[in-house]
Amino acid sequence: MKTYLLFLALILSTLQGYAQEFSIGPKLGVSQGNINVSGSDFSSADSKLGYHVGLFARLGGSRIFLQPEVLYTNTGGDFQQDHGASSINYSASFDRLDVPLIFGFKFAEFFRVQAGPALSFLLDSSLESDDPGFTGPDYNTSTVGYQAGIGFDIANMILDLKYEGALGKHAESVAGFPTDQRQNQLILSLGIRLF
User: Fold this and answer.
1) What class, spelled out in words, does domain 2-192 have in CATH?
2) Are 67 and 36 in contact (CB under 8 A)?
């Protein structure tokens, strides 16, 4: 967390001398999330449709920008564990506070490429299973990931299409079996620049 804040302070101080733009506004969108699980015969299954809502700010010049965001996110995914001819199905849902710090480059005044770290704080989680004796995992309360993608600026609207990947495990085990469980998302969002 301290490294993340130090990185943010360094970027903000660098951009301060070049700041020609400051925008702020609401942001909302949808996502398609899945869970990658490895080990002990686990495999990914169906993805889940999720949503996010929050605020963004944009600081920078005519070509280089920094876009911090604070978003309430609902996401999840399904996975299964194979037991010979049968399998046990799991369905996970997460409510998180996500704080991406997106660094990007503008091209042709309306097209952007962007990437950066994303810090996630788990607010609530549920994991359901068709196994009656199932014991849920202890999910990590915070994780670090990354986001990368493209964006378009049209009038006072910003449209972002990003991929989010996890850099760390969300859980060490499921139902007592060691796993490497990670959340990934494809994110589509719309922001409105108020000024």
Assistant:
1) mainly beta
2) no
